Amino acid sequence: MKFAITVDDETKESIPTEPKDANKSNYYKVTATCDNGIKAEWDYNAWNLKVEDIQKGTKCKLAFNSTLTEADYKNYIDAGVAYRRNTYRGKDITSKLKDGSLFTEIESGHFDDIFVGDYITSSSGQKDLSNKTVVWLIADLDNYLYTGDGGIVLNKHHATIIPAIPLMKASMNSTNTTVGGYAGSEMVGYEVDENGKATQEKKEEGGTLDTVLSKYIEPDFGASNPSGDKQNHIIEYRNIITVQVDKTRTNRFGLTDGTSSNFEWYNRKLDFMSEMNVYGGIIWSSSGRDIGIDNMQYAIFQLKPGFRDSYGTYRFHYWLKDVAKMNNFAYSDAYGVSGVYGANGLIGVRPRFLIG
Fold first, then answer.
1. Distance of alpha carbon 320 from alpha carbon 276, whole angstroms
2. Are 131 and 314 contacting, i.e. CB atoms less than 8 angstroms apart?
3. In 3D, which of 120, 38, 103, 113 has the Cα closest to residue 83?
4. Per-residue DSSP letters for 125-160?
5. pTM to 2 decimals?
6. Using the 8-state DSSP alphabet, how is residue 236 labeled?
């Protein structure tokens, strides 16, 4: 390609490296035109040119004019983030984890070259249920921004990550009960008192998700991540999770055999997805107490619905966080069915977590 570049109507040899002229108060408004009818658009988030159907010898004109206000520039950035959230790309961005640009691009809030569906191959060597190296998917961008209560309000830009395939199999409760709700399950691991209510105290051995965090997630995104920056990029957040189940209340089965009846705010680093996150609606979740901040569908499941229960040719079941009734939690079935499963069943562990 050949470029003709002007900056405030003066011919230049190179593109400005920053969106704002150091000598002026406004940002650059960029106009891009190419010959042969080729469509070109300036990407303000990545600060580069997007060209469709490029041909050899294409000539483009780029005009940078200091006419954008800060508010106008922010509108372009916000539009770019929306574009990235609503575009499935499926690109391997593992190199960004290794050189650290993954985190700087997220922290900027621009998500320069990160799209929903992009993936990272784990460097830890851990295997998933298909006995292949774990693959992490970008499930959404900034979808939990400004959630939380007085304990922690999440004001950090972030990417929501899920494993492409469940990491392992485990039961929610080996005793086949939902007493203590999601918080009191063996998966989450909080103590349950004599009234069947989960407390804020962890069991001595913790929960299965604690093991998942240390074994699978921290090696890639914690302080020992491959970038070598020695920073923990796993974001702690606040979430409402269920702590008690009333076995006399009517659930979505129309039966009086268990409904989530109480919840509390907890500091969390990872959780199972809710039915809302996966399907965009409630199917068997017993009450609004099951949902918390997990009240919207992830972009990846809107753009690639097949990722709900499959990746490549591999199909799988996995737990969701929602209590369905006294002995069942909701789960996502390998055949596209929204189901419930006995709490003592052994099915997939597919948590989500946030990085930034």
1. 10
2. no
3. 113
4. --B-TTSSB-EEEEEEESTTTT-B-SS-B--S--EE
5. 0.95
6. P
How far does CA 194 lie from the centroid of its chain? Answer: 36
Assign 288 to helix, strand or coil. Answer: helix
DSSP 72-128: HHHHHHHHHHHHHHT-B---B-HHHHHHSHHHHHHHTSS-TT--BT-EEE-SS--B-
Is residue 162 classed as helix, strand or coil in its secondary structure?
A: strand
- What are the tokens at 267? 């500091």
In three-state secondary structure terms, 67 is: strand
Q: What is the pLDDT of residues 270-308, one digit of tens each?
A: 999 999 999 999 999 999 999 999 999 999 999 999 999
Please state, in angstroms and rounded to a whole number, the distance separating the CA atoms of residues 232 and 339: 36
Q: Burial level of 116, CB count in 10 A (0-12/13-18/19+)? A: buried
Which residue's structure tokens are 């901040």? 293
Helix, strand, coil percent content, the chain, rounded in steps of 5: 15, 35, 50
Collapse the DSSP code of 338 into the 3-class scheme (helix H, G, I; strand E, B; otherwise coil) and give the result.
strand
- pLDDT tens by residue, 78-118: 999 999 999 999 999 999 999 999 999 999 999 999 999 99
Token pair recorded at residue 283: 């199917």
The CA-CA-CA angle for residues 157, 354, 47, to 5°, reads: 40
Task: Say how far apart CA 68 and CA 25 lie, in whole Å.
Answer: 9
Beta bridge partner(s), residue 65: 29
Strand partners, 50: 41
